UniProtKB/TrEMBL annotation:
GO terms for molecular function: electron transfer activity; heme binding; metal ion binding. This is Cytochrome C. SUPFAM superfamilies: ARM repeat, Cytochrome c, Soluble quinoprotein glucose dehydrogenase. The keyword Heme applies. The lineage of its organism: Bacteria, Pseudomonadati, Bacteroidota, Cytophagia, Cytophagales.
């Protein structure tokens, strides 16, 4: 019995060592690689010859030990900002205008592999302060308690807006007596119903963008903060993304979809204009692979997601992205895209590249990552540019990172959780700051309780965090006295400012005017001629208010930009004018497209606008169809309602008399189009799904191919939405006259109605994986 136990121990030990080994060939670091839990390849080879007491256990690292486990480029290093017990299970943070930090904690997130107690309302938002400006938080309080997995935070003046899991509602919290605890709660956006879906598939964000709209992921809505509440504005083509949302200096939003193993999406155009993606926006061959510094056996995708050395081979949980917009790290990092992969324990750095208006992501490093860690429990889930101009990283520092829906008993991931006892490591968490050698801290911001005029210089601050928050605060204060100096600044004039504004300062002044409803044509016309293309682009974007008024003078001014050398400017013209019914606007768009018919971005932007308008007009389902398919469906709707509904019902559910079978979800209608064509051409007799009906379906072959294609296209479109589970995900095309012609010729000699048995002999089988 003892020998069996020893064998089991040695086998388990070998697996444990293999899971924790460091991949030494793909990393470089200015920090020491020695930690209590990292085992090198040489040690692994000799492991079975080592005395048991000399083999380290897989135990969680202290913050100091974890700090030494980072692998970062030369010149960079990590500093600890906060850790347990001050914070536990952190997922998101937000700073107010004075750099007080609010941290959302999901304290019931996957505390075991079954998700026991996940929905208990005991999570919190912590308030952290750095009272001596040394970069480390030294004061904390429970700002809000008894929450259900808080997921979105946004500071507005002295208030904190918070959204919790399973609800669309957003509340404002405020501390009125200065004790660090919220004592006033009020609703700012109420829907009043439960938000469906797994907690991984619900919204994140609340990002105040350059355009003064507040964006979130998943749900097709954005907000405007007006008079203390959030006013919703719908996005006809839907939103994007899952966990993580950011924007660049020019208001371009960056989403990601971890569930789809998508490390970046939605960054070609603003979602108000539709949904535009390019399959080559980043390379599957060079961008999608990830490069860990430690083995990653705990993957939801199983062995197919692992290399031979047990490292993750591909993004599987991309999230928590940010564009670095700070001023205290090397300038070559500015504008780069950072995104976390908590399964790989890495943070990717990518260049954002613009070619003829189309945006690409390109990995900065070959076969290695910007940041990685040999701490097995390093779990980065969010990144930010901070008030001090550095990169901030939220590390949940825990065992299980996948939500319990994907860790059922018998699954590959569940086996790994149990093997390595990952469920025992939780209720931890760190916030890290990436700094560079020689870094010095600047003064902390003081943007609250100061006049709006004092904030104007910050619109031109070298750190994007300061620019964003100054703009937001001025808009929230609503002080109109600053409008004259903002106009001077937007036009690039020094005026009363200490110096002539930079292009970014101009841009923020321009959008701050927009947020104060203080835009006029003089400002727009001046900025349309600015040397910087991003200011010209913003002028077009903001000027859409005049397009809504069908202002011919404004449209004539836009025509002067059609020969602009910058493709972002031309793309914005397409986006802003593409939906206009004005004939002059149509001519501008037509002229641009004719001149640049070979430019993918311009042509695709117009197609996206057209689709977006179709969705507005016809609804999301019809609007997503091509114009030709939509015409078929609409013609078929008239035929169906006039003729077919008499037996099958307007809603396709059949009639109480049971004279004919229901069509809603009927597999012989929706499984493959040839079957449905055969039925309509020649009719159907006999039992259907084991049930007999008093009459048989008559043949409709005397009608034209166009007639039959139209009514079938409508029926398949309308009654396939709730089709049986085994048919979901199958191709669901329209039926075209050529399809009908083919079936008519194939069965030209048939003079009797089909039976279900006869049809099923001809129908193609359903896919095996469904």
């Amino acid at each position: 019995m003892k020998s069996k136990n020893l064998v089991f121990f040695l086998v388990s030990l070998t697996a444990l060592i293999y899971a924790c080994k460091v991949q030494m060939t793909t990393t470089s670091s200015s920090a020491s690689s020695a930690t209590p839990v990292v085992i090198t390849q040489a040690e692994e080879q000799a492991s079975l010859n080592l005395p048991v007491e000399t083999v380290p256990a897989m135990v969680p690292l202290s913050p100091a030990q974890s700090q030494q486990a980072f692998r970062v480029p030369k010149g960079y290093h990590m500093e600890l900002v906060a850790s347990e017990p001050m914070i536990t299970e952190p997922v998101a943070l937000a700073w107010d205008g004075n750099a007080k930090m609010y941290v959302a904690q999901m304290e019931t997130y996957t505390q075991d592999a079954d998700g026991t107690g996940t929905k208990a309302k005991i999570s919190r938002v912590m308030l952290l302060e750095d009272t001596d400006n040394d970069g480390k938080m030294d004061k904390s309080s429970v700002f809000i308690k008894d929450l259900m997995l808080p997921r979105m935070l946004l500071c507005v003046n002295h208030e904190l807006l918070v959204n919790e899991t399973d609800t669309y509602d957003i509340y404002s919290y405020k501390d009125t007596n200065g004790d660090g605890v919220a004592d006033v709660k009020k609703p700012v956006y109420l829907v009043g119903k439960v938000a469906p879906g797994n907690l991984e598939h619900q919204r994140s964000g609340l990002v105040w963008n350059l355009d003064n709209y507040i964006y979130q992921t998943v749900d097709p809505v954005r907000f405007r903060y007006t008079n203390g509440v959030l006013k919703a504005d719908s996005l006809p083509s839907g939103s994007n993304g899952q966990w993580g949302l950011t924007h660049d200096n020019y208001g371009r939003l960056f989403f990601s979809r971890g569930g789809g193993e998508n490390a970046g999406s939605g960054f070609q155009i603003n979602p108000k204009y539709g949904a535009l993606e390019f399959s080559d926006a980043y390379s599957e061959e060079t961008f999608s692979p990830v490069w860990s510094s430690i083995s990653n056996p705990d993957v939801q995708g199983g062995p197919k997601r692992l290399r031979s050395d047990s490292t993750l081979n591909h993004f599987t949980s991309a999230n928590g992205q940010s564009i670095f917009r700070g001023d205290r790290l090397p300038s070559d990092l500015a504008g780069d895209y950072l995104i976390t992969e908590p399964v790989a324990r890495i943070i990717r750095r990518a260049n954002v590249v613009n070619r003829e208006g189309k945006t690409y992501l390109e990995n900065v490093y070959q076969n290695k990552e910007f940041i990685s860690s040999t701490d097995f429990f390093f779990r980065p889930v969010n990144t930010y540019t901070g008030p001090d101009g550095c990169v901030y990283i939220i590390d949940m520092n825990r065992g299980i990172i996948q939500e319990s829906n994907w860790t059922p008993k018998g699954s590959f991931l569940r086996d790994q959780i149990e093997r390595y006892k990952l469920d025992k490591v939780n209720q931890r968490g760190r916030i890290w700051r990436l700094v560079h050698d020689g870094y010095t801290r600047g003064p902390q911001p003081k943007m609250l309780d100061v006049p709006a005029g004092n904030l104007i210089p910050y619109l031109d601050h070298p750190n994007g965090w300061w620019r964003d928050n100054a703009q937001k605060q001025i808009v929230i204060l609503g002080d109109k006295s600053v409008i004259p100096v903002l106009k001077q600044m937007a036009k690039g004039q020094q005026g009363a400012l200490p110096k002539r504004p930079s292009a970014l300062g101009q841009l923020h002044a321009l959008w701050t005017l927009e947020g104060l409803n203080a835009i006029d044509k003089e400002v727009i016309y001046t900025t349309m001629k600015d040397p910087d293309p991003q200011i010209r682009r913003a002028a077009i974007w903001i000027g859409e208010m005049y397009l809504k008024q069908n202002d011919e003078e404004f449209i004539a001014k836009l025509s002067e930009l059609t020969s602009d050398a910058d493709y972002d400017v031309k793309t914005q013209l397409i986006l802003s004018l593409g939906a206009s019914k004005n004939e002059s606007a149509k001519r501008i768009v037509k002229g641009i497209l004719e001149q640049h018919a070979d430019k993918q971005m311009l042509v695709s932007a117009k197609a996206s606008i057209d689709k977006n308008e179709d969705i507005k007009t016809y609804g999301s389902r019809l609007g997503r169809l091509s114009a030709g398919d939509r015409k078929l469906v609409m013609e078929g709707a008239e035929i169906y309602k006039a003729m077919c509904s008499v037996c099958h019902g307007n809603d396709g559910k059949g009639l109480s008399s049971n004279i004919a079978p229901p069509l809603l979800g009927a597999k012989h209608l929706i499984a493959d189009k040839e079957t449905s064509i055969r039925i309509l051409l020649h009719g159907l007799k006999g039992p259907i799904e084991g049930k007999a009906y008093p009459t048989e379906m008559p043949a409709m072959k005397d009608n034209t191919d166009e007639w039959i294609s139209a009514v079938l296209s409508y029926a398949r479109h309308e009654f396939g939405a709730n089709r049986p589970r085994e048919y979901r995900g199958l191709p669901y095309p329209a039926v075209y006259p050529a399809d009908v012609k083919k079936m008519r010729e194939q069965h030209a000699v048939l003079n009797e109605a089909w039976t279900i048995e006869g049809l099923e002999k001809l129908a193609p089988p359903l896919p095996v994986n469904r």
